[in-house]
Write a structure and sequence with these properties.
By secondary structure, this protein is an alpha+beta fold. It contains eight helices and 14 strands.
């Protein structure tokens, strides 16, 4: 489900921004860190069973008079769905940044494939590892443009009331979406707001890991409040407390944020991040902490930052705590729940003043 949602967002952002967001893609999370920025196109092709238009984001490489895409499916033993659909239809529609073409898909045979494979792995060597995972020989598909189009969704100019973007699309000519659909400009602004919020919290995580108090401080409004278990109170004091903690207790730490949900309502946003924290205490074994950041962001004078913050710990495999110590640590944090009483559902999120550990 998470991967499907990621692909859906990639497609939406790509179309909405004409590839300004999405054409260059950081593939490291999907290649175990062995790759970097790659170029991606969108392929639109009819589903072989449903007959509905589907759009897939795919890595590509310019090759000859067309664009080379690899049916690697992450090293899976089965061909990807987009290839099965393309075999059935032969012709699809591709978008590369703001250029849209109808294109013929041709699976390269024999020597043509060998030549294309050599060019591919010279630039992207991790495909060799992918190929080693399966006996299935990856088909290499050359998408050759045959005529330009104005738009990948309807193949006609879009109006501001066009159907919202997604992977399952209305057939061409099926009519406009209801007038209540957000405009292109509104959707673009939401995208920019989410990007700023995401970047804000990445600064915080880097500030913790690099012991950079100013980076941490840049993620909060001056009057923000933070509930971080052992510290509950003004975020200004939390930054000093957190810096002392990571310096005194930990030899190193690395924070990773994964799942990201953002409920935007005007100048407020309720946000949930899942996180992984790899921590190496002084004179103890490295351990993993897993949890969530629940936050209320506010946009003030054009700047998004945290106004209310809450850290939940859901798993900690630290071996340096004894049983009594683990119970004490667990009791410091607001407990997570698996129902709608979980703090992530609170609107508005408000740190409980009764939990304050400082005046």
């Amino acid at each position: 489900m998470a991967l499907m949602e990621f692909a859906r967002n990639h497609v939406e952002n790509y179309i909405l921004t004409n590839g300004e967001v999405g054409h260059m893609f950081d593939s490291r999370p999907f290649t175990e860190g062995r790759s970097g920025l790659v170029t991606t196109l969108l392929l639109k092709v009819k589903g072989r069973k449903s007959g509905k238009d589907r759009i897939f984001p795919l890595q590509y490489q310019k090759f000859g008079n067309g664009y080379l895409v690899v049916a690697s499916n992450g090293g899976n033993d089965r061909d990807p769905h987009w290839l099965l659909n393309l075999r059935e239809n032969v012709v699809g529609v591709i978008q590369i940044k703001d250029r849209v073409f109808r294109a013929v898909g041709y699976i390269l045979p024999g020597e043509q494939r060998q030549e294309a494979w050599a060019a591919l792995v010279a630039e992207h060597p991790w495909f060799v590892d992918y190929q080693a995972r399966t006996d299935r020989l990856f088909p290499l598909v050359l998408m050759t443009p045959i005529d330009p189009l104005k738009d990948i969704l309807t193949e006609e100019p879009l109006s501001s009331e066009s159907e919202p973007f997604g992977l399952d699309l209305l057939p061409a000519g099926s009519g406009a979406a209801p007038a209540s659909s957000p405009s292109r400009e509104e959707r673009l602004q939401r995208l920019l707001d989410k990007d700023e919020i995401y970047d804000c919290w990445l600064r915080y995580c880097r500030g913790v890991d690099r012991c950079d108090a100013e980076l941490m401080r840049s993620a909060y409004h001056e009057d923000a409040v933070e509930d971080h278990g052992g510290y509950v109170g003004p975020a200004s004091g939390f930054i000093d407390w957190g810096q002392n903690l990571v310096r005194d207790i930990f030899e190193s730490c690395m924070h990773f944020v994964t799942n990201f949900s953002c409920d935007l309502q005007g100048d407020e946003a309720h946000v949930e991040f899942y996180y992984l924290s790899v921590e190496k205490p002084h004179d103890a074994e490295r351990h993993l902490r897993v949890g969530r950041y629940i936050q209320k962001y506010e946009r003030r004078n054009g700047r998004w930052a945290v106004a209310q913050g809450l850290c939940l710990v859901e798993c900690d495999n630290a071996s340096f705590y004894d049983r009594e110590g683990s119970i004490i640590v667990d009791s410091l944090f607001v407990p997570a729940r698996r129902d709608r009483e979980d703090p992530s559902y609170a609107r508005p999120l408000q740190v409980d003043p009764k939990r304050f550990t400082v005046a």
